[in-house]
Design goal:
Helix 1 packs across helix 9, helix 1 packs parallel to helix 12 and helix 1 packs antiparallel against helix 13. The protein is mainly alpha-helical. It folds into two domains: 173 residues, no CATH class; 148 residues, no CATH class.
């Protein structure tokens, strides 16, 4: 059982290493592409559009049918995006350096914000609101936020008061925030699958071949196990937690992510498990088929079978990598715990066997045997 368990443990560590590389690439793309800020922008625009639809704004809802007005989303994009950009470019949400760099470009400033809470949003809306004409107690939202006229110059809309907006935000913000979080996670999962496919092809990561080499070679298993501490440290640096823990990407810099990507790629290369194109067995088979090497050439049918098996190995690796680093962190930890338990039981069984074997010996012989064991 120990060789099989050691094989499973080494394979889990290889998959964890590869998934950490995928995770680092995904984090770089998420940071560069500002996925969080894009999702936040969409969430805030949905919030304002929902507020206007809730109060049956004629620019949003057809009053005759009660249904969304034709072309409402496109027609109201300008004013709703003004609301988003003005909120997210508020100086309260930015460091002084960012404000100085992009102070004249609210859209770029908005792209720097990745989170806003309910009270911050209401506070910013309060600062932008103005008293209604003839009633100094009632505050109205800026007309440019709720009117689709050119430059937001339409007459103020009486429903768009700060009080009504605050009530709507407190009621629906948690729902929209949860929806935005799920949207972000779905995008990251899709991106993870895409990056997994690219990594598998780039490194020629044949999972079946890796499993076979680990099962056949105890030296390969030992070499992989020697990197266990480095892999777990890398997982901690990348913020990967066991499955079920909060799914958050760490705030790592691009330079830090680049270093971790280089480390994990080096480990995969040094493991000598057939990962990569240079030592690929499928390349050797094609070369043998073309008589480029001194080896018995395979037949066309054998080459086709080998190719299909190789493609299945790539698909197998891609599917496993798409499970994500948290899954492999959990699996690796459980396999280590299982191995420790098996080794502990074997030591207990060996000690029990020694006691039984020495029980029938004469006293002086038994004492010498116990002394040797101690």
């Amino acid at each position: 059982m120990i060789p099989l368990l050691e094989t499973a443990l080494a394979f889990a560590m290889i998959m964890l290493t590869a998934s950490l590389f995928v995770s680092a690439v995904v984090q770089v793309i998420v940071n560069v592409g500002r996925y969080r800020s894009c999702v936040l922008t969409h969430m805030l625009r949905s919030l304002m559009h929902g507020f206007r639809a809730f109060h049956k704004d004629p620019d949003v809802v057809d009053l005759a049918t009660g249904l969304p007005a034709r072309g409402a989303l496109a027609r109201n994009e300008a004013c709703e995006m003004r609301f988003v950009h003005e909120v997210l470019s508020d100086p309260v949400l930015h460091a002084r350096s960012a404000k100085l760099a992009y102070g004249s470009d609210p859209e770029r400033l908005a792209g720097l914000v990745e989170y806003i809470d309910v009270e911050d949003l209401i506070s910013i809306a309060t600062g932008a609101s103005a008293p209604a004409e003839g009633d100094g107690r009632e505050l109205l939202l800026p007309s440019r936020w709720v009117s689709c006229g050119q430059g937001g110059s339409s007459a103020p809309k009486r429903y768009a008061t700060l009080e009504q907006f605050s009530m709507y935000v407190r009621r629906w913000f948690p729902t929209l925030e949860g929806t935005a979080s799920q949207t972000f996670k779905l995008r990251v999962r899709r991106l993870t699958l895409l990056v997994s496919m690219m990594v598998v092809i780039l490194f020629n990561f044949d999972g079946f071949q890796v499993l076979a080499r680990l099962h056949q070679s105890g030296a390969a298993r030992a070499q992989v196990a020697a990197h266990a501490d480095a892999v777990t440290t890398t997982a901690a640096r990348l913020g990967e937690r066991p499955a079920g823990a909060p799914d958050e990407l760490p705030d790592a810099t691009l330079a830090e992510l680049g270093i971790e990507m280089q480390k994990t790629a080096t480990l995969l290369d040094e493991a000598n498990l057939g990962v990569g194109w240079q030592e690929s067995w499928i390349v050797q088979r094609f070369r043998a088929y073309r008589h480029d090497v001194l080896a018995p050439p395979p037949t066309s049918l054998e080459l086709l079978q080998d190719t299909l098996f190789w493609l299945a190995g790539l698909a197998f690796s891609c599917g496993l990598l798409s499970l994500g680093a948290p899954f492999w962190v959990t699996t690796f930890a459980r396999l280590i715990q299982m191995r420790n338990e098996v080794q502990h039981r074997k030591r207990q069984e060996s000690a029990s066997a020694v006691k039984v074997a020495t029980a029938a010996l004469p006293l002086h012989t038994r004492e010498r045997a116990v002394a040797k064991l101690s």
